[in-house]
Predict the structure.
Amino acid sequence: MANSKKPALQKQFTVLLVVIAVIGAAALGWVATRSGGGGVAVDPNLPLGTAQAFRLGNPDAPVKIVEFADFECPACGQFAMLTKPDVHERLVKTGLASVEFYVFPLPMHANTWSASNAAYCANEQGKFWEMHDRLFYTMDLWNTQATKNPDKKMKQYAAELGLDASKFDECLDSQRHYPNIKASGAEAERQGIGETPSFIIGGKKYAGSLPYDEIKRLVDEELVRLGKADTTKKGAK
Amino acid sequence: MIIAILALVGLFVAVYLWMFKLGIIGSLSCKIGGCDKVNTSPWAIFLGQPVAFWGVLYYVGTFAAAYASTLERFAADRRAALLLVVLTGWGVLFSGYLTYLEAAVIHAWCQWCVVSAIIICIMFVLAVWEWRRAK
């Protein structure tokens, strides 16, 4: 009797494992795709407020990609290193879209304020995006785990980027952009942004990093909606 | 059987953390502690790969061993029980090291890492119990 029960028990056990596996895979799939799903509608009447956006590309481009990111967020860094170059080359340079970048400092990242301040100060000398890239590419060297004096690194990067050191140092030390950074973070919260990176494309909000193909799809959808789909003939792939 | 179920649950925890390291997930769901701080620390990398990646491999291996030990052909094989003791024992040691890092070096707790450590400890106790029973 025991022998006849064993195969049946084994079968039930295997079925149980499959059920657990399916539930677990579905949960992970939901977590992974919720950012790329239908998106969350943003009130179209809600203006972006007075927080400063750093623009990449033509302000008259038909589609606007709004990004909210924290300089000390690893996923934001991966987006900046892996996806942004494609967005820049294929969507921004072709005139299909522009990018508006908002700083969203998260409370668990102690050094993100110094980095954000450095980016704002670099912007005073017209090199926001150069500093943006440098910060994301070197995050491991200046983040909270790496140093308690991030300003030293920021001044080093400013020198390497060819910024006027005295002006940059004065800007960084004065911390005069902290209210602007705070306003930018408040703006992100007002837009209902809960994690970084997050994006608004075509009036819909997407939480979490997006791969290039997904961004391209959303931009294409918006171009179709705007009746400007023929602009894709410019060569974006 | 319970070890296989626990290994499967642990596998999903490890995959979740690995997805974060890959940038598929923007930020971890973390009700308590500092998951981001732990998972972005230098100790979140081991032998050039994210610790979560090694966790995925570990749980796949442990699940395979645990499932195999439930099959009739291995039921009487003490080596299968011993293999599980070795695997889960190694897991306890490595989890203990990671928990020490969280408590004493990083000074932050990752709830998912703690869940994984608890799973491994329970698997180890069950594996030892199975092994002694198979003697």
Notes: The beta strands of chain B are 45-46, 49-50. Chain B has a mean pLDDT of 86. The domain at 2-134 of chain B is CATH 1.20.1440.130 (de novo design (two linked rop proteins)). Residues 58 and 101 of chain B are 19 Å apart (CA to CA).
